[in-house]
Design brief:
Number of helices: 4
Number of domains: 1
Helix content: 10-25%
Strand order of the largest sheet: 5-3-4-6
C-alpha cells in the first residue's frame, strides 16, 4: 500500500492543516506576506539561506491552499510578485503604509522624528531590490 504525501498548509484560523494537495501560494509568518511560489524575492531569500547555512527563512515559510485563505489568516499580498494586489491592499489600508509587523502605525520605530522616515530605524538606507521596491539596508558595524 502506497502512502500519499501530506502537505502542511495554513488555515484561515492560522493553524496548520494537513492536506493531500500542495499549497498554491507561499508566505512568510514573520512578515505576514503571501505570494506566488516562484516569487523572485522568496527565491532570493531561499538562495541566500543556502549560502549562509542558516534555516531562518525556511522556518518562517508557510503555504496556503488559495488566496482567500491567506487573506483570512491575516496575510497581505507580496509587493514583488503580486504588485497589483499589493497596491490595492496598500490603498485600502493607509495606516499600514510605513509600519512593520506588530508596530502601531502612529508610533515611530526607534524614535525616528523625521516623518519621511517613519517606521525606519535610524542609520538605515533604502536600497532598490530586483523587484523595484525599496528594501532596508543596515550599515555594517566596524
Amino acid at each position: 500500500m502506497v502512502e500519499s504525501k501530506l502537505y502542511k498548509l495554513l488555515g484561515e484560523d492560522g493553524k496548520i492543516l494537513l492536506s493531500k494537495k500542495k499549497g498554491l501560494l507561499g508566505g512568510h509568518k514573520g512578515q505576514k506576506v503571501y505570494g506566488r511560489l516562484d516569487c523572485p524575492s522568496a527565491l532570493r531569500a531561499l538562495e541566500k539561506q543556502k549560502e549562509s547555512g542558516h534555516e531562518t527563512y525556511v522556518k518562517q515559510r508557510v503555504f496556503f491552499a488559495d488566496e482567500a485563505t491567506a487573506v483570512k489568516a491575516g496575510y497581505r499580498p507580496c509587493g514583488c510578485c503580486l504588485k497589483e494586489k499589493y497596491q490595492e491592499w496598500k490603498s485600502q489600508t493607509p495606516d499600514r503604509k510605513k509600519t512593520f509587523p506588530g508596530q502601531d502605525a502612529h508610533q515611530p520605530r526607534h524614535g525616528s522624528a523625521n516623518p519621511d522616515r517613519l517606521g525606519q530605524p535610524s542609520g538605515v538606507k533604502l536600497r532598490k531590490s530586483a523587484c523595484k521596491s525599496p528594501r532596508l539596508e543596515f550599515p555594517l558595524e566596524t
